[in-house]
Here is the input.
Amino acid sequence: MARRSGSSAGREVVGGRRGERHDGDLVAGHPAPRAECGPVNVLGIDPGLAHTGYGVVARRGARFLALDGGVVATPGGVALERRLATLYAEIEELLERHAPDAVALEDLYFGANTRSAFAVGQARGVVLLAAGRRNIPCSSYTPQQVKQAVCGSGRADKAQVARMVCTLLGLSDEPLPDHATDALAVGVCHANHAPLSAALAGARSR
Here is the structure.
Protein backbone atom coordinates (compact mmCIF):
# COMPACT_ATOMS: atom_id res chain seq x y z
CA MET A 1 0.00 0.00 0.00
CA ALA A 2 1.01 3.60 -0.39
CA ARG A 3 2.39 5.59 2.49
CA ARG A 4 -0.35 6.94 4.73
CA SER A 5 -0.64 10.34 6.35
CA GLY A 6 -3.58 11.12 8.57
CA SER A 7 -6.86 9.88 7.15
CA SER A 8 -5.82 10.17 3.50
CA ALA A 9 -4.46 6.77 2.44
CA GLY A 10 -1.53 7.09 0.09
CA ARG A 11 -1.34 10.87 0.29
CA GLU A 12 1.00 13.04 2.28
CA VAL A 13 -1.42 15.95 2.55
CA VAL A 14 0.13 19.39 2.81
CA GLY A 15 -0.36 20.41 6.43
CA GLY A 16 -1.78 23.55 8.02
CA ARG A 17 -3.72 26.16 6.12
CA ARG A 18 -1.53 25.68 3.06
CA GLY A 19 -3.28 22.55 1.88
CA GLU A 20 -5.32 20.98 4.62
CA ARG A 21 -8.39 19.25 3.30
CA HIS A 22 -11.55 20.94 4.54
CA ASP A 23 -14.60 20.67 2.30
CA GLY A 24 -15.70 24.12 1.22
CA ASP A 25 -12.69 25.96 2.65
CA LEU A 26 -10.45 27.98 0.35
CA VAL A 27 -6.96 29.13 1.11
CA ALA A 28 -6.66 32.90 0.75
CA GLY A 29 -5.26 33.69 -2.68
CA HIS A 30 -3.57 36.59 -4.40
CA PRO A 31 -4.49 38.39 -7.62
CA ALA A 32 -3.68 36.49 -10.79
CA PRO A 33 -1.25 38.26 -13.13
CA ARG A 34 -3.53 38.20 -16.18
CA ALA A 35 -6.94 39.47 -17.16
CA GLU A 36 -10.05 38.09 -15.47
CA CYS A 37 -11.70 34.95 -16.78
CA GLY A 38 -14.50 32.60 -15.81
CA PRO A 39 -14.02 30.28 -12.83
CA VAL A 40 -11.78 27.30 -13.44
CA ASN A 41 -10.57 24.45 -11.20
CA VAL A 42 -7.40 22.64 -12.23
CA LEU A 43 -5.81 19.50 -10.83
CA GLY A 44 -2.08 19.98 -11.33
CA ILE A 45 0.07 16.86 -11.36
CA ASP A 46 3.81 16.33 -11.01
CA PRO A 47 3.90 12.65 -12.02
CA GLY A 48 6.20 10.01 -10.64
CA LEU A 49 6.04 6.36 -9.65
CA ALA A 50 7.48 6.78 -6.13
CA HIS A 51 6.03 10.25 -5.55
CA THR A 52 3.28 12.01 -7.49
CA GLY A 53 2.62 15.57 -6.45
CA TYR A 54 -0.87 17.01 -6.78
CA GLY A 55 -2.28 20.48 -6.34
CA VAL A 56 -5.81 21.73 -6.92
CA VAL A 57 -5.79 25.35 -8.08
CA ALA A 58 -8.88 27.48 -8.56
CA ARG A 59 -9.03 30.68 -10.52
CA ARG A 60 -11.82 33.04 -9.52
CA GLY A 61 -11.72 36.13 -11.66
CA ALA A 62 -8.30 37.64 -11.06
CA ARG A 63 -7.42 35.51 -8.04
CA PHE A 64 -5.72 32.16 -7.58
CA LEU A 65 -6.72 29.87 -4.72
CA ALA A 66 -5.19 26.61 -3.47
CA LEU A 67 -7.89 24.08 -2.63
CA ASP A 68 -5.70 21.05 -1.92
CA GLY A 69 -2.18 19.79 -2.29
CA GLY A 70 0.11 16.96 -1.30
CA VAL A 71 1.95 13.87 -2.47
CA VAL A 72 0.85 10.35 -3.35
CA ALA A 73 3.65 7.98 -2.32
CA THR A 74 4.03 4.35 -3.36
CA PRO A 75 6.82 2.31 -1.73
CA GLY A 76 9.54 0.47 -3.57
CA GLY A 77 9.64 -3.30 -3.28
CA VAL A 78 5.97 -3.59 -4.24
CA ALA A 79 4.92 -5.01 -7.59
CA LEU A 80 4.66 -2.35 -10.28
CA GLU A 81 1.04 -3.14 -11.08
CA ARG A 82 0.07 -2.67 -7.43
CA ARG A 83 1.87 0.66 -7.22
CA LEU A 84 0.12 1.90 -10.35
CA ALA A 85 -3.23 0.63 -9.06
CA THR A 86 -2.70 2.57 -5.84
CA LEU A 87 -1.86 5.72 -7.75
CA TYR A 88 -4.93 5.27 -9.95
CA ALA A 89 -7.20 4.90 -6.90
CA GLU A 90 -5.80 8.04 -5.30
CA ILE A 91 -6.18 10.10 -8.49
CA GLU A 92 -9.73 8.79 -8.87
CA GLU A 93 -10.52 9.96 -5.34
CA LEU A 94 -9.13 13.42 -6.06
CA LEU A 95 -11.15 13.70 -9.26
CA GLU A 96 -14.28 12.60 -7.43
CA ARG A 97 -13.72 15.04 -4.58
CA HIS A 98 -12.80 18.15 -6.57
CA ALA A 99 -14.45 17.58 -9.98
CA PRO A 100 -11.81 19.69 -11.77
CA ASP A 101 -12.48 21.31 -15.14
CA ALA A 102 -9.08 20.15 -16.36
CA VAL A 103 -6.03 18.13 -15.42
CA ALA A 104 -2.60 19.62 -16.09
CA LEU A 105 0.57 17.52 -16.02
CA GLU A 106 4.24 18.30 -16.24
CA ASP A 107 5.52 17.02 -19.57
CA LEU A 108 7.73 13.96 -19.76
CA TYR A 109 11.42 14.81 -19.98
CA PHE A 110 13.87 12.19 -21.22
CA GLY A 111 17.11 13.13 -19.51
CA ALA A 112 20.12 11.00 -18.74
CA ASN A 113 18.09 8.55 -16.60
CA THR A 114 15.93 6.69 -19.11
CA ARG A 115 14.67 4.22 -16.51
CA SER A 116 13.33 7.07 -14.37
CA ALA A 117 11.70 8.64 -17.42
CA PHE A 118 9.84 5.42 -18.18
CA ALA A 119 8.57 5.28 -14.58
CA VAL A 120 7.31 8.85 -14.89
CA GLY A 121 5.65 7.90 -18.18
CA GLN A 122 3.81 5.04 -16.50
CA ALA A 123 2.53 7.36 -13.78
CA ARG A 124 1.43 9.89 -16.39
CA GLY A 125 -0.48 7.16 -18.21
CA VAL A 126 -2.39 6.29 -15.03
CA VAL A 127 -3.38 9.93 -14.50
CA LEU A 128 -4.44 10.33 -18.14
CA LEU A 129 -6.51 7.15 -17.92
CA ALA A 130 -8.30 8.31 -14.76
CA ALA A 131 -9.08 11.69 -16.33
CA GLY A 132 -10.06 10.19 -19.67
CA ARG A 133 -12.60 7.86 -18.09
CA ARG A 134 -14.33 10.96 -16.72
CA ASN A 135 -13.98 12.96 -19.96
CA ILE A 136 -11.82 15.55 -18.20
CA PRO A 137 -9.48 17.31 -20.66
CA CYS A 138 -5.75 17.05 -20.00
CA SER A 139 -2.91 19.37 -20.93
CA SER A 140 0.85 18.98 -20.63
CA TYR A 141 3.42 21.69 -20.02
CA THR A 142 7.19 21.61 -20.14
CA PRO A 143 9.13 22.70 -17.04
CA GLN A 144 10.15 25.83 -18.94
CA GLN A 145 6.52 26.72 -19.69
CA VAL A 146 5.58 26.25 -16.04
CA LYS A 147 8.47 28.44 -14.86
CA GLN A 148 7.56 31.11 -17.40
CA ALA A 149 3.93 31.15 -16.29
CA VAL A 150 4.74 31.27 -12.57
CA CYS A 151 7.93 33.35 -12.44
CA GLY A 152 8.04 35.14 -15.78
CA SER A 153 11.26 33.33 -16.69
CA GLY A 154 11.78 29.85 -18.08
CA ARG A 155 15.16 29.74 -16.31
CA ALA A 156 13.86 30.24 -12.77
CA ASP A 157 15.24 27.82 -10.20
CA LYS A 158 13.20 25.64 -7.83
CA ALA A 159 13.50 28.11 -4.95
CA GLN A 160 12.12 30.94 -7.10
CA VAL A 161 9.23 28.76 -8.28
CA ALA A 162 8.41 27.77 -4.69
CA ARG A 163 8.40 31.40 -3.53
CA MET A 164 6.17 32.52 -6.39
CA VAL A 165 3.73 29.64 -5.84
CA CYS A 166 3.39 30.71 -2.20
CA THR A 167 2.94 34.35 -3.24
CA LEU A 168 0.37 33.69 -5.97
CA LEU A 169 -1.67 31.33 -3.80
CA GLY A 170 -1.32 33.30 -0.56
CA LEU A 171 0.43 30.44 1.21
CA SER A 172 2.78 30.71 4.17
CA ASP A 173 6.51 30.72 3.58
CA GLU A 174 6.99 27.31 5.19
CA PRO A 175 8.48 24.94 2.61
CA LEU A 176 6.09 22.66 0.76
CA PRO A 177 7.12 19.18 -0.42
CA ASP A 178 8.88 19.66 -3.76
CA HIS A 179 6.40 17.50 -5.66
CA ALA A 180 3.42 19.37 -4.22
CA THR A 181 4.99 22.72 -5.10
CA ASP A 182 5.64 21.57 -8.65
CA ALA A 183 2.06 20.31 -9.01
CA LEU A 184 0.61 23.60 -7.77
CA ALA A 185 2.88 25.43 -10.21
CA VAL A 186 1.55 23.29 -13.08
CA GLY A 187 -1.99 24.10 -11.96
CA VAL A 188 -1.22 27.83 -11.95
CA CYS A 189 0.34 27.49 -15.39
CA HIS A 190 -2.82 25.92 -16.81
CA ALA A 191 -5.09 28.41 -15.06
CA ASN A 192 -3.04 31.17 -16.70
CA HIS A 193 -3.56 29.56 -20.10
CA ALA A 194 -7.29 28.99 -19.58
CA PRO A 195 -8.52 32.40 -20.87
CA LEU A 196 -6.49 32.10 -24.09
CA SER A 197 -7.51 28.48 -24.63
CA ALA A 198 -11.17 29.34 -24.14
CA ALA A 199 -10.92 32.26 -26.56
CA LEU A 200 -9.23 30.13 -29.21
CA ALA A 201 -11.81 27.36 -28.79
CA GLY A 202 -14.62 29.89 -29.17
CA ALA A 203 -13.04 31.35 -32.30
CA ARG A 204 -12.66 27.90 -33.88
CA SER A 205 -16.31 27.02 -33.15
CA ARG A 206 -17.65 30.10 -34.93
About this structure: The first strand starts at residue 11 and ends at 13.
